[in-house]
Amino acid sequence: MSSPSFQQLTLNGLWKNNPALVQLLGLCPLLAVTASTVNALGLAAATLFVLIVSNTAVSVIRTIVSDTIRLPVFVMIIAAAVTVTELLMQAYSYELYQILGIFLPLITTNCIILGRADAFARKNAVPVALYDGFIMGVGFGAVLVLLGAIRELLGTGALFADMQLLFGPSAAAWRWQVFAVDYPFLVAILPPGAFLVTGCLIALKNQIDTSLERRAQAKAAAPVAGSKRVRVTGSIS
Amino acid sequence: MKWLASIGLSGTVLALFAAVTSIAIGWTYLSTEEQIEVAIRRAEAQQLLEIFPIGTHDNELVDDTFSIASNTALLGLREMRQGYRVRLSGRTVGVIIPTTARDGYSGDIRALVGIRRDGSVAGVRVVAHRETPGLGDKVELRKSAWVLGFNDRSLSNPALNSWSVKKEGGAFDQFTGATVTPMAVILATRRALEYATLNADTLFESAGDPS
Predict the structure, then answer these.
(1) Are residues B66 and B166 in the same domain?
(2) Interface predicted TM-score (ipTM)
(3) Number of domains chain B contains
(4) Which of A6, B15, B117, B128, by CA, is between 20 and 30 Å from A213?
């Protein structure tokens, strides 16, 4: 099977085979850490980094690892990548490290990473595997951030609170109180709300897909105007 | 015996990878060790400085600690914790006491209570809790200014029996929809003040103090 093109990879990673909305992988951190945009962004960045590193590493060693031991080796690589990410975050972004808490080491168990390593990276060359890791990470991250923004907006009425945890003290001013709430829509920032909003996003994506397909079908089936063949044989009385 | 050789090979490759990944982790650990230590200290110091800001003392709060055993009456600590001394020109002008409220709505609420030499509260900060987001979590300064209402309070302001929520005849606000959480913090603060009064001699090292 020839290697997929970068365009195909991009379309797959972002839409057709989106890890969160289509493959439905990595839902545990997705639901738990997206109560605010900054948390979601932090986890998205960490997951993206690990995906790139692990896909690249797996692709590099794909010829020297036999099938029998490939899974333990992949898990070791992923665990090492996650531990390194954790240490770096603890050193340079301590408050965010505290907020992400246990979900940072749990990235190791995120099925997207092992899934891409086994399904793709070990069968493809390094540049392709690297890009796949990148675009899958971006696709996952996009859903994370979208979810985080929606839940933060519904649950607190504000957006981009606490951005200084990622971008330094000046980012504290990015907080935008979109509407004031005395009684916030609490469900949005609690776990049930995460399920509800994710479900809505999946439904929305499926709806978009269906209407795009319908439109494509209608276009293919519609006859060009004026092309109906005039009957020229047989008797006309 | 080909299978033996193949198992041997697999084992060797696995061991090799284990070695490489361990080295990578170890190297990162050693490179970031110092920076992590700095980050942890800075986070801890920041919390302490909120209670006793820079002008009020001249010692490094994070370093000036004393231990408090876990079974100490009044403080409810689950394990041994550190208290901090606040000094100005060598004299202890305040202490920061860790306290745990075991009667929180969803479990323990850990807080730091800053108490001045004259028995008044310099500040209370909740450092760990599992209270309901949007309801009980208003005890966090990030979520509301409620906890600033403890500043300058003491065991005579309000009177001992007014250390309660307004709904029950006390002097402190409750949160709409949450009474258990603020009550837990109020009582924990009162108990910390009582602890400081009982142990004033050792805490403030005021034995033999001419004042």
Answers:
(1) yes
(2) 0.73
(3) 2
(4) A6
